[in-house]
Amino acid sequence: MRCFFTVGMLKTKALKHERIEEGVKRLAATLPVGARLPSERDLAQSMGVNFLTVRKALQRLVDEGIIIRKAGSGTFVAKPCADAAMGVNKVGLLMSSKSDAYSYRLMQSISNVASGMDLTMVPSWVDDYGNTAKSELSRFEEMGCLAAVIPWFPPSSIYDVEDLVESTSFPLSHPQLYPGFGTALVLPRTPQSALSLRQIIESICQYLLQVGATKLALLGPKDPENGFLENKVGAFSFYCATRGIPSVCQLVDSDAASMDRLAEEWAKEASPIGIISYDDEHALRFMTSMHKLGLSAPKDYRIIGNNDTEGSRYSDPPLTTVAQDFDFIATRMLRGALALALRTPVQQGEIESLPLVVRESCGGAGMVASGQIKIPRLIPRLSAKLSEKFGKPQEVSIPVE
Description:
Helix content: 25-40%
Shape: globular
Radius of gyration: 22 Å
Distance between the termini: 29 Å
CATH topology of the largest domain: Rossmann fold
Largest sheet: 8 strands, mixed
């Protein structure tokens, strides 16, 4: 279980209670009214405290009107937290109204990391990255924000974001640095230590082959302006083509009917197909379509998602997925924002490994636990975790060939 925010080394229950309350308040300040907060159980597990302590802290926020509880649904943000804008070191958070599960997880980590850096995040939600976003950047500057962060944006908005970056003098940090933007402030990467997209794709392909897949497939959205998807398709196609591995790549529309048609097509495969999904969302949609046909993973197919969103843990069966180091990404973005504001070069580190959270959808949990799975020496950085359906992931050591 990844922490949404940390409580720190605390000596008394009262102090824990206060820190939990403050942490949830900071988290709520980065989310829109109506956004759902993590469950009491998830908060308690991530912070290593009793759920009753979390419940007491949440009740105080309910009494203040900051959050609201809905029986059977969860806990939601009820109103903006005024305290969040009172800090001295403020950073604007420019968020898309089209945010998905991945971006919400990232925003939670930004809230966590910002708290540890004594930064106050000032959130704003925009429908586009044109004039509305420019107005919000001006508002951030008037409020005394040091810089602003765009944690995520829809791939279709990439050119609008590029124009926004080029048209503003306000320090702006975002996931992709464009040519000429901020390059003087970020020292060169170290390729030898960086985990590339190609390495991740190759690792997953080899893993799926080891758990019995005889044909590989890549599943993703039909989005011609998604550069990350394009690179993923390229890495997958290159790996399969150079090794003579039967493969197929299918990009689908967002409607259920398109996914249903794809499920009917792939259900005709004579042996289990190993599927690499662009993200957890597409994997879960595909699993739903296969359920309609009376088919399920891992008996009829193997599937691996990406991002380890909450839905992946409680799907039927639980989804094997590549987890992201959201705290690392959040730290990199905030450090980049401060570097731009202070005009100071910053050495940004690289992710050394990403955990493959092994659950039931890939059919390899037992093989991982018994040591049958081997990750080739070419790509030793992809670690693995064996996770039970409702338990905390257990670290598993995977032999290297």
